[in-house]
Amino acid sequence: MNQLKALTPRRLKIALLAIPVALGIVYYGLIASARYVSEATVALQRAGNDGSAIPGAALLLAGINPQSREDTLYLKQYIHSLALLTKLEERLQLRKHFSQRRLDLAVHLSPEANQEEFLEYYRQRVDVVLDDLSSTLTVRVQGFDADFAHRVNQAILEESERFVNELSHKLAREKLSFAEGELKLAGERLQQAKEDVLKFQAKNRFLDPTIQARASGYVTAELQTQITKSEAELGGLRAFLNEDAYQVRALKAQIAALRSQLESERERATASGKKGDRLGELAVDFKALELQAEFALDAYKLSLAAVENARIEATRKLKTLSVIEPPTLPQSAAYPRRLYNLATLTVACLLLYAVARLILATIREHQD
């Protein structure tokens, strides 16, 4: 009961309003460290791609992919990575800057902070925002000094461009290695196809059986024509000569010889046994070997084009980090927002004071 009486409105104002606001004024006016923010906006762009001039199959072998949003996400993760923090520490000594002796312990990095704590602190001081609509990255870097924040932001962009180029070149080198492997296999298949053709020609003693088969066809047609003419002539002789006449017997012998030759040519062109010249079968086999050789040659040409394209991709700059807005050099501190924070603290204390007064009034009313 006595304690409730001691909580007078004046004491409540002092405890819940005056003291917190006074501490806030002291903190934000004398202790809080000014933090400057350097801001930059960048976008990933692919360098001019001549892939449209390359055949589709060669494009597939070279493994060229259109730029995707994933590249920007990879870069965002890299900016917050320990690998980049290590490089920035070597260049700019971030730990030394952020752990300088200050009264403001809320934003102070402990000199004894381990690697994980340092990385978490770094992520709190470097903000990376991805714009889903334009796929741009906005990098905001905080520092206790305007020039230092600007230099850190500039170093982040430089290291980010190296990361993007190295990542794309690594992929291009892998594509080149794959394309060279495919070229080697295509060359081996082409060489084997050539050897098969040469072996076939040496074994059968034909440079091109298809040409021989066509020649045999011409001979067959010519023999058929001669037989037809001879039979017509024989019919004419029989009209006024006997069968034993010398001209009739000679023409019959000639027709028999022509038919024998015709049958031989037909047998030679169509026979499929082990004996005989087998021109038809040889022509079909040779055509199959010829098609295989042509296909191997086409595959080799595509593989060669893919290798040349992959080699170009591996040597030239594939992606570039386009700086839309270069790192700014801040002229005034962005944090802390003293007036805003003091106003928020005052409003919160007033609400707390009003709630406390209401609770105390309710308790006293019930006691009475």
What does this structure look like?
By secondary structure, the chain is of the alpha+beta class. It is 69% helix and 9% strand. It is built from twelve helices and four strands; from the N terminus they run H-H-E-H-H-H-H-H-E-E-H-H-H-H-E-H. A hairpin with a 4-residue loop joins strand 2 and strand 3. Helix 4 crosses helix 8, helix 9 runs antiparallel to helix 10 and helix 9 packs antiparallel against helix 11. It is rod-shaped and about 160 Å long. The termini are close together. About 5% of the residues have low confidence.
Shape: rod-shaped
| Spatial separation of the terminal alpha carbons | 11 Å
Derived structural class: alpha+beta
Count, helices: 12
- In percent terms, what proportion of residues is strand? 5-15%
* Poorly predicted runs of 5 or more residues: 49-67
Q: Identify the strand order in the major beta sheet.
A: 2-3-1-4
Compute the average pLDDT: 79
Rounded radius of gyration (Å): 47 Å
Q: How would a crystallographer describe the biggest sheet?
A: 4 strands, antiparallel
Q: Share of helix among residues?
A: 55-70%
Order of helices and strands: HHEHHHHHEEHHHHEH
Q: How many strands in all?
A: 4
